[in-house]
Amino acid sequence: MKNSASMAAIAIILAIGLPTAAIAQDTQEEPKAERAEPENVIVVTARKRKEDILKTPVTMTAMTADQIEKRSIVSIADVAANTPGFNVNNNSSGRADRTIQGVIIRGFTPSTVVATTTSTFIDGVPVSSPSALNSVGAAERIEVLRGPQSAYFGRNTFAGAINVVNKVPTGEWGGSVTTMVGTRSNYRLRADLEGPIAGEALTFRATFDRFGKDGSWVAKDGGTLGDQKSTSGSLLIAAKPASWLRAKVYASYSKDEDGVSASTRISAVDIRDPAGNIVYKGQSNCTLNGFDGAGAPVKNPFICGTLPPPADQLSTSRVTDSFVKKFLSSPQGRVLDPSQGVQGYGMVRRYFHLHGTVDVDLMPDVTATVLAGYNNESWSQFSDLDSFDSTAVPNPFGGPGSRSYFDFPYLSERISKDYSVEGRLSYDSGKFRGVAGASLLDGRNRGSIGGGNGALGTTVFANGGGTDRAKTLGFFFGATYDLTRALSVSLEGRYQIDHTYAYNPRPGAPVPSGLGTLLVDSTYRNFLPRVIVNYDVTPNTMVYASVAKGVNPGAFSTGLITATPEVRALALAAGVTLRVAPEKVTNYEVGIKGRAFDNTLTYSLAGYYAPWRDQINSIVVVVGGAGAFFYGSANTGSVDLYGVEAQTSWRASDLVTFELGGAVNLSHINAFTNRSLTTLSGITDFTGKEQPNSSKYSAVGAIQLGGDVRGVNDAKWFGRLDWNYKAGVWTDQANIVRTPDRHVFNVRAGISRGIVSVEAFVTNLLNDKKYVSVYDNFMFTPMFEYTGNYSALLVGMPELRAGGLQVKVKL
Hints:
Layout: H1 2-15, H2 17-26, E1 43-44, E2 51-52, E3 60-64, H3 65-70, H4 76-81, E4 86-89, E5 91-92, E6 95-96, E7 102-105, E8 118-122, E9 125-127, E10 139-146, H5 150-153, E11 160-166, E12 174-182, E13 186-196, E14 202-213, E15 217-218, E16 224-225, E17 228-242, E18 245-258, E19 263-267, E20 271-272, E21 278-280, E22 286-291, E23 297-302, E24 305-306, H6 322-329, E25 346-363, E26 366-384, E27 409-429, E28 432-451, E29 463-464, E30 468-482, E31 487-503, E32 518-538, E33 541-552, E34 555-556, H7 559-562, H8 565-573, E35 579-580, E36 583-596, E37 601-623, E38 628-651, E39 656-672, H9 675-681, E40 697-708, E41 715-726, E42 737-738, E43 742-753, E44 756-763, E45 773-777, E46 792-796, E47 802-810
Parallel strand pairs: 8-11, 24-42
Antiparallel strand pairs: 1-2, 3-10, 4-7, 5-6, 8-9, 10-11, 12-13, 12-47, 13-14, 14-17, 15-16, 17-18, 18-25, 19-46, 20-21, 22-23, 25-26, 26-27, 27-28, 28-29, 28-30, 30-31, 31-32, 32-33, 33-36, 34-35, 36-37, 37-38, 38-39, 39-40, 40-41, 41-43, 43-44, 44-47, 45-46
């Protein structure tokens, strides 16, 4: 019944665009002098030039500075919650936290969370991780572009792009200080200051943000799960020394320090101590006809249907004893110096971003632009992979340097660095608008992993990997010509050369930076066009159609090179390939957007069809019976994705504004192979299945009230209720089990007078406890008897209801 109600709500939302379009077409055009001019026009830069969002023939959403503040958006997870058709998967290496946040738009689920089909930008400059959003202190807007954006944004914009645009500081002094306190030790201190360095010719903005909170969930040992703390700062300097010259330099730094993640395993099997007592309860409700490692039929207990709540209280190891300290203090196999890494269970991340832009008006209609950027991100995460209280389970591998009881702590570290540069010429005059340029993006990353139930820091150390490098050179163009006053045609494209490399790790402890010995490399060349036709049905209504191609760079399964012959044979039999070709998509799209009711209502409605070919999929191979795994990839998939997306905003009066948005994102798997899923489920033909980790239905809604406080000068009030809905997601392509639907309500109200505003808020008002992410996983035991097939699901737990009070003083 609940799912039927959710589908009905989305159907109503998607239908809103149709009658409004009809109204717009039936309305007689008023003389220009009498027609109401649009208010609060949102200007975006989806095509490397400033355009009204409702005149831009690209399917996208944009959140303004006011919306960002009213919805309290500070992270990529907040953006996803407030955007239909947008999911974030934060599950990786046995935890679900802020370490890695995989962005999924329209069901384009990447093969792993470290892969990506959607890239993030700040002021059009690429950043290496969505985590950079946390450090943007004063965003003018956040743009979410859907569909391939390769023509303008290049690599890894296969499914879309996210662009955060900074506010440009003015020549007047201003700023604000914001303090917030809330439940569960929730606090925030934000400050920003802007003003002139040399009048309007040289201005600056500096921001500082400190945030912290205790986790929502209490573990069996009495500690909280999901503790977070972040500190960030930024500086933007804008120069306008002449009317024809503009330049900006932006730098930001952030540090995240989190505790044990709010995640747990839903087990399909009972875990028992030697006396036969259950120490972790299995929740299997079905039996799958799978296969064992030798290919013989076997019955696999599993969980089918909608994933139930955890049967056990959340539990994890977090004691930083002498074994953990010895392991974390060892530099062997590490890519980070131990002093820069995590010091116990949890995560630490450091992120530095720098970019600059220069715009020069060469002629009244010609502008030259140069952008350059640099990113440096490192994170270190230490977690308990078994995820249950295992102190009653003896360690058969115990001895000097190891615990007497079974435990499986695990370290993951990663360093990512990249630089980019772009130069372009833009022309805008009369019926013709165009841009042409070139760009280079050179990124490299390396990581290390290690841990287990052996002698930590004595015989068990981290294992540092080699460097992966991807260098992309692109030459792009875009040209729009107005055939008539109402009809325009745009031809856009990029010729892209991707050169990918994989290197052996260099000797030393920690593993030193540098490229090392080249193992394998590949070069791929692709032309990525986009054609758009848009037509103004009326001055307030535009329809458009487009076709675009996108490509995601290829990858390597470098483990094949160094694997033993036995392991290599297992991996090749599972379908792993050394060189993995790029995956490709062709996106067909039609849409309508515009204004109605004297510009008080805005709307957009779009439909798309996107065949995804040569899909890259991750393949996990179990090696032996000691909990060892081989990870590789291959082009094993072909998927058709299609759907409808809509949004509308109606300012019904000076007092009331309504916002609605919805998406139906459908998928149909044509071809897919994955030995791990086949041995678990027995399924060999995945035809007709749906993409995992993506909500089929999603919607947002809001009601905002506000106005002047009667009888009080310079005083205003507002109240806002937000509803965010995400349908449950499949855990994998077998479509055996899915998470429950989530309905989250947030409420916020405040009053302001003069320079002071006070707001009260409650997030997750109805305390929805449904999972926010899910991933296939294993239950770890001393003899690893449950790692031959998937035996558990790793789930991310949500933020529970929280309330607080915020005070803001404008300077």
